Amino acid sequence: MAKWISRMLGSAVLPEKQADNHQINEIDLSRLPQHVAIIMDGNGRWAQKRGLPRSVGHRAGVESLRTAVKVCTNIGIKYLTVYAFSTENWKRPKEEVDTLMNLLVEYLEKEVAELNQQGVQIRAYGDLAGLPLAAQQALTRSINLTAKNNKLVLGLCLNYGGRAEIVQAVNQIAAEVKAGKIDPGSIDEEVIEKFLYTRDIPDPDLLIRPAGELRISNYLLWQLAYTEFWLTDVLWPDFREEHFLQAIVDYQKRERRFGGLL
Ligand code: FPP
């Protein structure tokens, strides 16, 4: 079994750092997190440390995203959701916002055929109407092309904020109540979940936050209620397969009680 996993993972390994067999042997494939969420943080610091423009850090961050997708498809994680652009990121200089939007379009245009072949279904969560037209069009094309795939659901959080997501859900529910379609007395967690961007996917089991920050940054506020957090000082562009596997190994050592007792 271990050899088989090792062979499978071989294709995702980046040359400079290989996941060692010891780490791979430790993973129980029958108890993988079904859904992993990632805050891709530290691109700017990675670039600054090298005296490079922040845009180079973001580009390097796309490489780490590629690696994360490969790890998921290789070992069988079903949902990967990444924070690519928050509702607050518009406050950054226009040049950086443009870089991020261009990178998104470039990523989708360059990779969608391969992602499609790998069985990846692309989705986007957030206020997509607020994105530049080119980004909206690239997303629509990628989402439509990959809609039937079921190996991995790759969720891109774009113009996304956890609070904004809850506000839009409340507004939609209020409109349904007004139209007589929802009885206000029937509103429970299940009803609210139906109006979230993530309505038909399970909550994340594991949240990975690189770059040493200890905050949630308005990410998946509803969905992270019982998610296990895995934090590391490694900056996102340095995040490799070995880090992802370590997060899974550590996750499998946790006792998840969901507020109850074991
Ligand atoms: C946070 O790092 C990262 C972002 C705001 C953007 C993340 C985007 C990418 C990894 C690439 C584009 C995404 C796709 C889907 C192609 P930061 O810049 O805030 O880092 P810092 O805290 O070190 O400044």
TrEMBL record:
Cofactor binding summary note: Binds 2 magnesium ions per subunit.
Binding locations of substrate: 42-46, 54, 58, 86-88, 90, 92, 209, 215-217
Keyword Plastid: no
Highest taxon in the source lineage: Bacteria
Enzyme class, UniProt record, top EC level: transferase
EC number of the protein: 2.5.1.-
GO CC annotations on file: cytosol
Subunit relationships: Homodimer.
PANTHER family named in the record: DEHYDRODOLICHYL DIPHOSPHATE SYNTHASE 2, DEHYDRODOLICHYL DIPHOSPHATE SYNTHASE FAMILY MEMBER
Protein's recorded name: Isoprenyl transferase
Species, as recorded: Carboxydocella sporoproducens DSM 16521
